[in-house]
Amino acid sequence: MARRTIGTPPLSVTLALPESAEAVAARVRDARAGRTPLRITAARQWLDAGRPCHTAGELSLAALRGVTEYERGDFTITMRAATPLAEIDAVTAREGQWLALQPFGSADGTIGATIATASWGPLASAYGTPRDQLLGCEVVTGVGEVIRAGGRVVKNVAGFDLTRLMTGAWGTLGVITDVTLRLRARPEVDRTLVVVAEGGADAFCSAAWQWLRASPYAPLAAELCSAALATRLGLEGGGEGRPLLLVRLGGNEAFVRAAEESVAALGATTEVSADVWARLRTLEPAGSTVVRLGALPSTLGAVWSAVSDVVERSGGWTHATLERGVIRCVVPTADGTQEESARIRGIIDQLNAPGSRVVERLPAPLWEAIAAPAGDRLSSAVRRTFDPDGVLNPGILAPLS
């Protein structure tokens, strides 16, 4: 199969932006020499996420944009870090392929930020998270060295798995400048059904989980939406105070038809437009507080009922990726006043689960009080290895000790 190289011109900018990994490395070395910490940016859509980042300068990757290598036969693609997700989708769609990530947030967001924050969406149930999609990456460390981790082919497993280390590190170990990702075949048929939850959330969650475990027709995604969220998405049933289950089915026509019949065991189904997933991804307002709770499937229904009640009384909504046991709580945040911060903290104090609690977005004054930093000895030692002077995104995960 011939190799395809697809070029995209850099963004129009008013300042000279680095256009290569070597140029980024030079900027990092200059910043290190001048003791000027840097905030890594591109599309600037994640600046309100993570702990407050205390820096004196900005390192924009906006010029590092475009697909550079596309191996259709190998289902792999290589692109620069600031390439928007929408551009990747458009390029791969022409070949009947796709990057099956679709994380929450705008498709104008970049692949570099998606990997750096390890962001994922409902498709993670079928295809995995960014760690499962990333084959290799080019990174500039905090000392200004350019390193290459992983490879450009699916079978490459040589060396220490730095790709997984960089995924979710929020740019604190290195500046991601280039990534190689695994693609999937785009389903011939992509259909979404809505099932209204009858008989209470606990019973419905249990039935849905049992169906997901037993059915041979594994969906691409199965997302439980609270009544408030369903109403905002314009789906029938949400206005009646009942949660809805969004089920995304993909495959050939015969498979999808059989899967539809199987889903009907959960209740009456209605087909809705596939764009509901894009609306779900982009619904939350800028500045919202977002908390992610983890629970075992056996306890998910009870946790869902409790937290959904708290969040909806606060003007927010919840949705859960059933197969991963993750409930995402979204609360629009009005402003940065002390009263609003106190309100948000009171809400978060009530959001508990037998598993994990991870804060995605939060008003800046509350991070120190609510979210524990990643300051354990191992994390700190790894950080010192790659960025000994704390040049890159200092404070966004934890202070460098």
Tell me the layout of helices and strands.
Elements: H1 21-33, E1 38-41, E2 57-60, E3 67-71, E4 76-80, H2 85-93, E5 97-98, H3 111-117, H4 124-127, H5 130-133, E6 134-141, E7 146-150, H6 162-166, E8 174-182, E9 184-185, E10 189-196, H7 201-214, E11 221-225, H8 227-232, E12 244-251, H9 253-263, E13 269-272, H10 276-282, E14 289-294, H11 297-313, E15 317-321, E16 326-331, H12 338-349, E17 357-361, H13 367-370, H14 377-386
Parallel strand pairs: 1-2
Antiparallel strand pairs: 3-4, 4-8, 5-9, 6-7, 6-8, 10-12, 10-13, 11-12, 11-15, 14-16, 14-17, 15-16
In short:
By secondary structure, the chain is α+β, with helices and mostly antiparallel strands.
